[in-house]
Give the backbone structure.
Amino acid sequence: MALIEIENMEFYAFHGHFKEEQIVGNKFLIDLSLEVDLDKASRSDKLEDTVDYQVAFRVVKEEMEKKSYLLENIGGRILDSIYENLQGIKKATVRIRKMNPPMGGHINSVSVTMTR
């Protein structure tokens, strides 16, 4: 088994519980880790024998464009879509970080990590 990891994908999106968050928006950072069997790809050197991480990025981007109130909802949608669009995933983990959340003080980020 091996990991394909895409780290610090950056999106400006309009997610959040508060109305202002859905109007003003915020910066989000996404990490995606995909556990896959890369044995065949390591020998063949062919894209069709691995998980195409460009497709994985596109999936995350499409889900980030849909408004949500909760990071948990975004994470669940990303995981659903990853499994729908990519073959050979044994386990997937997504971490969603909302930068500078409106919590009444200086906070770098809040995050939700989900694995399926």
In short: The chain has one domain: 2-115. The chain has a mean pLDDT of 95.
